[in-house]
Amino acid sequence: KGKRLFEDQNSAIIMGTLNPMKTKHYLSSNIDELDLLKDQNDMLVSMNQLFKDNRYFQLVVIRLKNMPKINETHGREIGNMLMAEYIKKLRTTFVTESGNIFRVSGIEFAITITDPRKMDVLANGMKSNPTFLNLVMQYGSLSAELEVFAGIAIGGSDATDEHKLYTAASQALKIAENPQFSSHGCYYKDIVS
Hints:
Blueprint lengths: L2 E2 L9 E2 L16 H4 L4 H13 L5 E7 L2 H8 L1 H19 L5 E4 L4 E6 L2 H13 L6 E5 L2 E5 L1 E7 L7 H16 L7 E3 H5 L1
Parallel strand pairs: 8-9
Antiparallel strand pairs: 1-2, 3-5, 3-8, 4-5, 6-7
Helix pairs in contact: 3-4
């Protein structure tokens, strides 16, 4: 119920409050590594801060392409365990204190990489092995390979605000997913140059 602000009977000015709600468009997995990940809004806020601080960073948008198939074949629980393992590996390989991992949608994640050495690991890995970001997992007798694609955009040189940078990384991801493209990872700078 709104409250009338001014006692002017001819115009009704109603005051209300708006609370942002956290909305998740994927099921909770009861695995902290997945459920506690920050979302797309957090990603934009975090990148905004990196831009403000004049930090050099890269945004990597990652899609776990065959996740739905894995869920279908082995069940969602196995799928979630795989995803959680994968996120853990990404965290130890690429994330340092001012970077982070975000969950953009059910099978899409984003990483902000702030350490130049980690950027090199990614660049060299993808150069030497087109499926560098894939992960083969063994669970007992079950073996599954996560097929992973990535689009990478560089803060500052590819875009100077968080929305454009995310768009750039997403465009690079689309190219990476194209079967004609030689690698599973694509840098935005390589498609615009």
